[in-house]
Design brief:
Blueprint lengths: L8 E2 L2 E2 H10 L7 E5 L4 H8 L5 E6 L4 H10 L8 E4 L9 H14 L1 E7 L4 E4 L5 E5 L5 E10 H14 L6 H7 L5 E4 L10 H14 L6
Parallel strand pairs: 3-4, 6-10
Antiparallel strand pairs: 1-2, 5-9, 6-9, 7-8
Helix pairs in contact: 3-5
């Protein structure tokens, strides 16, 4: 991005505030832990002060495994049965989408927000030349939140850490262990802000939703 996307201005607020707002407003969420860089804890504590369900702001680690485990460790007893891991770079998540994933997790044990792949897919070689068409049948783009039973996720993450491995998302880890998650189609926007033009798109979507003003 060339700048810090998590605190980039979006709709009159820092980008991360939109995710916090959605989870704070979700009736199925009781407790939010915000994981951030160690040298920014005070900054994010101040930002999160307006969201009553944010009870902890903790330092993450170098790898995703360490950061998610740090977030899990911040839950006080009695710990929740389920935990939702959400990427703060997805500011367009809605309370309704979070609830839909939670209900699916209660029924199936784990769930993930996702959307079906609609583009034609081709595999290319090291010279960027097309070599194979990949069927998009039953292919889905994974998003967040990704919801698992806390004890299951914690155990899987600890195994990865002990093995010195890394992960890109929690559902991949669950699949590797032989588990399955219920895919919950999110028909609303839930893009991950990765490049500057994503901010422009997110801004337009927020304006359309009527959420641009600062609360």
């Amino acid at each position: 991005m060339g700048f810090d996307k998590i605190s980039a201005p979006l709709g009159g607020r820092p980008l991360i505030a939109h995710s916090l707002s959605a989870f704070n407003d979700c009736p199925d969420v009781d407790h939010i832990v915000l994981v951030c860089a160690a040298d920014r804890i005070a900054e994010f504590q101040s930002l999160a002060a307006e969201f009553p369900k944010v009870r902890s702001v903790v330092a993450g680690g170098k790898e995703r495994v360490e950061s998610v485990l740090a977030g899990i460790a911040a839950f006080a007893d009695p710990r929740p049965i389920f935990v939702a891991v959400h990427d703060g770079a997805r500011p367009l998540i809605t309370p309704e989408a979070v609830s839909a994933c939670y209900q699916a997790a209660r029924e199936f044990g784990a769930s993930v927000s996702a959307e079906p792949v609609t583009d034609t897919l081709h595999r290319v070689n090291s010279q960027s030349l097309t070599v194979e068409t990949v069927s998009r049948k039953n292919l889905w783009r994974m998003q967040t939140p990704q919801i698992l039973e806390l004890t299951v996720l914690e155990s899987l993450l600890q195994d990865v850490r002990e093995a010195g491995g890394t992960i890109t998302d929690e559902i991949s880890l669950l699949i590797r262990s032989g588990g399955k998650a219920r895919v919950v189609e999110n028909s609303d926007w839930n893009i991950k802000v990765t490049v500057p033009r994503d901010l422009e798109l997110a801004e337009m979507i927020l304006e359309r939703r009527g959420k641009k003003s600062v609360p």
